[in-house]
Write a sequence for this structure.
């Protein structure tokens, strides 16, 4: 990045703003609040025109949470917990965004954000111990501390398909859904069957004249059993919130699930079936955590559960050939994210909905009328929707030209895989922090983001109170954390490296080295590590110099 002379937004190298937070989702809103309340002058920067983060951008039909509303929210504000009335077990995008807008106003942080502004890059200035942040407005803003709250799923993956410029129809990216798209009566193709495609398909099936779902890898999918939130249910939740959040804080994925204390290896075939049926009927991610404790570690138990899912697909999907295409076979349950569905499989019983296996017959090119497959088939389409996911974990940060002390960009440092300390800080990038960075846990985002935000706020406060100009993780501690992250999948059903084509290892991004980008030691253990680091005065960090007044 070349930073040229330009106007500023009131923060100069000689008089920098205390902190800049990039992103206005769950974590960004809270991070600004935490720093503001500690007396810091803080500026939030958001590319969208309002708050919401992921829930601002993801407006595709069918977008909704995969976690239940009553714990997919802020936990620290007791009044907000009890005053906000979620309408559904799994709320849709407009409701989640409305919640975040309400929270931003309640915390009085909206005025601290600049909206419709994108960060292009940033460079560390060793002589002044500041970050020079380049905006797409041609401004440069200087700050002592730079915090990324851009999220793990915010850098859309746009696969390159030849002939795209010849297509006479419309191309749409699900994660940047335009308000003027109408699928009604159209011939629609959806490329991708991750969580986004799975949510979009049932809605599109009811609108489109013909719907073609282009699938590379079939997924295990759990029904979410969505239903309205009643006043009685809300009252029960409010009465139990202390216990609910205690469960969240002790759970490896930051969810209020309770182990049965049963091992599938000790269960009879009949009891396995009975408990799996209960999990299926209840719906949601509890299937993984409230059935058997060894579901994700014992291959034999997992094989029974995987076959249970396959049987359910065959029961729901009427056409055997279609059911076979939708059935995963070459990886175990839990090796990929388990999406929740809302009548996904039922959609394929409609005569206007077709699944296309693009693993056996890949897409070759766009044509003026649609898409041509390798076997010569041409799908005539009015609209092609890319539901092809994200450059997850590292992508949001590495796509911004952030250059640390050495002048090397973070993308260059991470060319062979992301290396961080605690998924929060990076050696050679002083005063730079991330919420939801690579090598942090993949868990229920709001409570995990709260813990990471609190840790970052304490680190920034520590630097201020000690009169430090710069703080960064020790290189050896970063290397040790990297080694730990790579070893944490041992003893689980999550395959290593090439064994599974998952976005968790970056396999969906051409040229991206496949490494584990997630800390699998559990959110509870991870938060304990954060607290230990902060409580002991950040001994795992090094200080560049002391500010001399």
């Amino acid at each position: 990045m070349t930073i040229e002379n330009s106007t500023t937004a009131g923060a100069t190298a000689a008089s920098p703003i205390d902190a800049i937070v990039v992103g206005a989702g769950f974590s960004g809103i809270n991070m600004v609040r935490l720093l503001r309340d500690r007396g810091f002058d803080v500026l939030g920067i958001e590319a969208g025109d309002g708050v919401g983060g992921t829930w601002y951008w993801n407006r595709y039909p069918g977008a909704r949470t995969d976690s239940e509303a009553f714990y997919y929210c802020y936990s620290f504000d007791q009044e907000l917990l009890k005053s906000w009335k979620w309408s559904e077990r799994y709320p849709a995008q407009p409701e989640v965004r409305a919640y975040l807008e309400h929270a931003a106003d309640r915390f009085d942080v909206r005025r601290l954000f600049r909206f419709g502004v994108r960060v292009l890059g940033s460079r560390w200035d060793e002589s002044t111990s500041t970050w020079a942040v380049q905006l797409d407005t041609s401004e440069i803003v200087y700050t002592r501390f730079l915090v990324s709250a851009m999220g793990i799923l915010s850098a859309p993956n746009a696969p390159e398909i030849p002939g795209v410029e010849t297509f006479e129809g419309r191309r749409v990216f699900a994660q940047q859904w335009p308000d003027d798209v109408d699928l009604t009566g159209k011939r629609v193709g959806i490329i991708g069957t991750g969580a986004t495609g799975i949510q979009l398909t049932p809605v599109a099936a009811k609108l489109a004249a013909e719907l073609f779902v282009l699938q590379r890898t079939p997924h295990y999918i759990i029904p979410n059993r969505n239903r309205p939130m009643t006043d009685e249910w809300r009252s029960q939740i409010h009465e139990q919130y202390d216990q609910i959040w205690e469960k969240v804080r002790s759970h490896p994925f930051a969810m209020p699930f309770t182990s049965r204390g049963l091992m599938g290896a000790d269960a009879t075939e009949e009891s396995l079936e009975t408990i799996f049926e209960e999990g299926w009927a209840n719906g949601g991610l509890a299937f993984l955590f409230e059935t058997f404790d060894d579901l994700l570690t014992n291959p034999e138990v997992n094989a029974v559960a995987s076959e249970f899912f396959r049987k359910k697909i065959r029961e729901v999907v009427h056409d055997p050939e279609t059911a076979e295409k939708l059935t995963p076979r070459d990886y175990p349950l839990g090796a990929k994210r388990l999406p929740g569905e809302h009548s996904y499989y039922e959609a394929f019983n409609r005569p206007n909905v077709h699944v296309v296996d693009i693993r056996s017959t890949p897409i070759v090119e766009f044509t003026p009328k649609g898409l041509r497959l390798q076997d010569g088939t041409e799908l005539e389409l009015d609209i092609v929707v890319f539901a092809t996911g994200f450059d997850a974990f590292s992508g949001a940060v590495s796509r911004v030209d952030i250059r640390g002390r050495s002048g090397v960009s973070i993308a260059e440092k991470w060319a062979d895989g992301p290396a961080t300390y605690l998924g929060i800080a990076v050696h050679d990038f002083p005063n730079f922090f991330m919420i939801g960075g690579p090598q942090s846990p993949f868990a229920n985002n709001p409570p995990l983001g709260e813990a990471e935000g609190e840790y970052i706020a304490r680190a920034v406060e520590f630097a201020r109170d000690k009169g430090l100009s710069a703080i960064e993780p020790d290189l050896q501690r970063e290397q040790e954390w990297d080694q730990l992250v790579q070893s944490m999948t041992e003893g689980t059903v999550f395959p290593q490296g090439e064994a599974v084509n998952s976005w968790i290892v970056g396999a969906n991004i051409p040229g991206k080295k496949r490494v584990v980008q997630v800390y699998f030691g559990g959110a509870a253990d991870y938060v304990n590590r954060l607290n230990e680091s902060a409580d002991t005065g950040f001994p795992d960090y090094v200080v560049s110099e002391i500010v001399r007044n």
Notes: The first strand starts at residue 17 and ends at 22. The CA atoms of residues 318 and 349 lie 6 Å apart.
